């Protein structure tokens, strides 16, 4: 049974008072129901989305105010630095005095012949280790690649491996301890399952590179001798290649530079820079056949 409401009849004043009280309560209930259904549009919400209005108690408001006061009292030095402050603290590392001294010996407006550039490069040496000699080329387009057999060692030891069952077991385990992989055609069906693993590393044998051969032993001698494979960066028309050590004789370095440039093709080259690991770069002359 629901609630029993008692109404006194016969007394107009009391009856009117009861009716007014009933109307007041009914109005309050309607207002409360409307408040529950009120939805407001919030900036950033997608179409059709609404955020329902909620009541926050006085106690919750007091707690939020206290939390705000505590945060405001924390010293600025203990707060996490803003993103802009972090950006300001980033400093570009400046070159040392030895590098600056070496750079003064290079004429930035001059294009040097290979011979003169190598003579100068030897004078620029200031590091206490045997630096690598590097070529940096700006070419016409990306996607260029090839190989070059340098007359003299680049100073980098090339690890050449020949495919056999034992090596396949290592590859199966994800172990790669070689720079060039040579295979006999008979092993290609077994090697095919590792194409997705070896391909991205540039180690999958292929006929164009000369790494699939009926005489693997001869291919090993070829690549161990100093054959290097080069290609441009994936997203920029740039080629970077080590062609020797600073301790290598100048005539041998010159022969390696000339051979590498011949491999890339003078028609594909816009600019060439020669440098060692620690030295400033020297621009080579491209108008005289890079001689």
Automatic annotation (TrEMBL):
GO cellular component: a single term: large ribosomal subunit
Biased segments, Basic and acidic residues type: 13-39
UniProt GO MF annotations: RNA binding; structural constituent of ribosome
UniProt entry keywords in alphabetical sequence: Repressor, Ribonucleoprotein, Ribosomal protein, Translation regulation
Disordered: annotated span: 1-42
Pfam families xrefs: Ribosomal_L1
GO terms for biological process, alphabetical: regulation of translation; translation
PROSITE patterns in the record: RIBOSOMAL_L1
Family: Belongs to the universal ribosomal protein uL1 family.
Protein's UniProt name: Ribosomal protein
Source species of the chain: Candidatus Roizmanbacteria bacterium RIFCSPHIGHO2_01_FULL_39_12c
